[in-house]
Amino acid sequence: MDIPKFSDIEDAYMRIEKYIHFTPVLSSAAINQIAGCNVFFKCENFQKVGAFKYRGACNAVFSLSDEVAQKGVGTHSSGNHAAALALAAKQRGIAAYIVMPENAPEIKKKAVKGYGGQITFCKPTLQAREDTLSEVLLKTGATMVHPYNQKEIIAGQGTCALEFMQQQDDLDIIITPVGGGGLLSGTSITAKYLNPDIKVFAAEPEGADDAYRSFKSQELIPVQTTNTIADGLLTSLGELTFKVIMKNVDDIYTASDVEIIEAMRLIWERMKIIVEPSSAVALAIVLKNKEVFKDRNVGIILSGGNVDLAHLHF
């Protein structure tokens, strides 16, 4: 599989610009004081479907030829990618076949249905997701759009950092959460091309730390069991995203669920915006490792804001 180049990200931006929101960059004096550095938040929680995933899904859907597109697209996803693909397909006027685990958050099931996605439920294991999707693709002839391990997806996610670095051109560090690694990969390609001196860090929950372990051991270690509130970061890195991350990323840090909830609460209370736990991991590692970030200009991509409010417990 080819690693996307910066030119692929530029092409993606031209392709999707009219379909996506140009999201704002916000900051908080109170959070800067607490963190001991200048934090700039790229608010992808304000993106369509409430997450950055819409960028990659849009690029993948609108990259297809008319002939291929007419049979629809399919994927397996527990949430944001599913909703993103359903909406991108709707924008193009084609079908989206989504395989979701039975235990996916209700808010995400509702979103997929609302965007016209055709859901097939399966058991909550990767094997069940993959097997069910294979059956659906065989039956429909739809094109598989991987949640992260695909060139078009990575290039689409990389457009977020492209906007971010135009909006805030003095960043010393840029941080994204990492699950499957699509956002991190795309961000790292963009950031290192535009500023070879910038540091690219990833933030991951301790209860799903396969990217951290893979990065440190320099070999791909799939996640075995997960236990974290950050439901958007449960997936393992793909071979393609792992390759990009090993080439471009400077370090990966982890945070506990308690630290993630504390960071999420801080964003809610000080900035008056809703982010999901997966988004708050990046701020959690800044607060946990203050010496690393002291007095620096730190860019954080707030990846999404889809919180299932029915399950809120502090």
From TrEMBL:
Lyase listed as a keyword: yes
A Pfam family hit: PALP
SUPFAM superfamilies documented for this protein: Tryptophan synthase beta subunit-like PLP-dependent enzymes
Record's keyword terms, sorted: Lyase, Pyridoxal phosphate
CDD domains in alphabetical order: Thr-dehyd (cd01562)
MF (Gene Ontology): ATP binding; L-serine ammonia-lyase activity; magnesium ion binding; pyridoxal phosphate binding; serine racemase activity; threonine racemase activity
Entry's Gene Ontology BP terms: D-serine biosynthetic process
Cofactor field: pyridoxal 5'-phosphate
Tryptophan synthase beta chain-like PALP domain boundaries: 17-304
Keyword S-adenosyl-L-methionine attached: no
Similarity remark: Belongs to the serine/threonine dehydratase family.
Protein name, per record: Pyridoxal-phosphate dependent enzyme
